[in-house]
Amino acid sequence: MKTSIAVGERGFGRAAAWLRWLRRRVRSSELIFVGIAILVGLLAGLTAVIIGILARTLQQLLYGLPVELRLSGAPALTLPQLLILPLGGAALAAFGWAVHSRGRALVDAVEANTLHGGRMSGGDSAIITGQTIISNGVGGSVGLEAAYAQMGALFASLAGRWLNLRRADVRTLVGAGAGAAIAAAFGAPIAGAFYAFEIVIGAYTPSAIAPVVAAALAGSQVAQRLGAVPYIVTVQPGPAIHTFGYIVYGVLGAACALFGIAIMRAVATVEGATRAHLPAHFRPIAGGLLLMPIAWWSPQVLSAGHSALHLDIVDAVPIAFIAGVLAAKAAASVISLGFGFRGGLFFASLFLGTLIGHLYAHGLQLVAGFPILNTGNAALVGMAALAVAVIGGPFTMAMLVLEATGNFSLTGAVLAASLVSSTIVRELFGYSFSTWRLHLRGETIKSARDVGWMKTLTAGRMMRRGGSTAEATMTIAEFRRRFPLGSTSRVALVDDAERYVGIVTTAVAFEDGVADDAAVASIAHAGQVVLHAELPITDVMKQFDRAECDELAVVDQERKLLGLVTETFVRRRYAEELDKAQRDLFREVD
Q1: CATH H-level, domain 243-448: superfamily
Q2: Residue 195 confidence (pLDDT)
Q3: Where in the chain is the domain with CATH 1.10.3080.10?
Q4: What's the rounded Cα separation, in Å, for the pair 81 and 512?
Q5: Least confident of 135-139, 187-191, 213-217, 487-491
Q6: Is the pTM for the entire model greater than 0.85?
Q7: Which of 209, 234, 395, 434 is the most buried (most CB within 10 A)?
Q8: What angle do CA 126, 345, 154 make, to 5 degrees?
Q9: Residues 6+ apart with CB under 8 A from 189
């Protein structure tokens, strides 16, 4: 017995030693880091395939669909089938109750990389994935991309913590995992890599290219080897696009930007109204009831819309029907997200964009009396431009179209329209859909750039405790006796209730012309502007600019003094942390 225990202990010791060696090597070797990213990409691709199978199987069981048919491509639905929508909403509410869904918002990959250094919760990710599968599987007008990216990012986050990676490396790995999942879903590794850079990481760096691209290729290959049908749209290449076409497509990009802003604001408005007036567990049921008449008109509005997109972009469909589907799908997406169905607008924005492109090309033809744009090209440009308006990532969408068509001329037009769309959205709205929802919760971020270190570097962490204090009623003469020159540079004043009053610079108290019998509070400064311990460093610097002084007090809710912070120290800490973040971003290891 003792021998077996000793053998087990030696085995555990060898495993621990190997893990320590791997941790050291992966922090210093880019090659090993790329290998870890490939493993994450393989897991992300496999998980994306499984999630897609689960959601499609649920649709087939609930709606009685054949294996080859997806819900958005189904014929007219019967009343019993339509009732699945509110019943599915009830199932979603029951799932939320069963898993005791937290009162706080669940953290997704973008928020984790922006505010938490890539740290993700397994419980949050499981809840988000389960809710997304149920929402999509019962017919809610949402996509599965949120679940794909969530699980791919989770594997990366867990690997990063297990290997004790640096903050910047964990963020890169999380982006690689999310990008690999998107690459697997769309069969587009380049688009998946750009998704990681633009949407999740928030920056392009030379050190991140190899792991992110390797993970995207691994995820795409796993899905391909498992026989998964990618979401990517395949169409016949249209004619080459010249200068006039770029200008016309730029206008389409502007139209998509305005439509995207309207969609995002509508989702926020409906969500706010339902949260205020409906119990949380009744919201998905009410949303399902509202979806019933829309789905009765056309099932194309249900689920993500993969089959509907292929039908509308390939087949000759009446323009009036295209306009109706556009309005219906937009309404269904707003209702689904606003009433508590979990998912995203990624594929919905692609689908809606193709419809806008169709209508735009047809509208120009009616005005001019002859075709000006190729309808297929216009649909793909509109698809990318609207997705950029809602999701962000102009290069992501340009690469998606390039990998779908192989048409470089069309890709140039897509990029031009996407940049127009992105610029207008940032100018008039300022956010993509993911960061807009964080903004609604009180955050001020506008991209996936890492600002988490700014949130943790607070006034409470930077303040100096135990400084000199004095009573505000003390006279100047008494102050001079108690704090002679050279004893301390500054003294904080408090009143009889120990509440902060202001700061006195010792040298000022010894200046000529200061009356000995005057209250020391008369020469105090910075009494009106104070800091609270949880205030982040960026807000601390704003307070210094407002106060126009060299030091400020940190107080609690009762205005009792906690410590002092100097502007010189705050700005030096900010510069040091900013420099460290930049070096970590480019893997410049000392």
Answers
A1: Clc chloride channel (1.10.3080.10)
A2: 93
A3: 243-448
A4: 89
A5: 487-491
A6: no
A7: 434
A8: 25
A9: 183, 213, 216, 217, 219, 220, 403
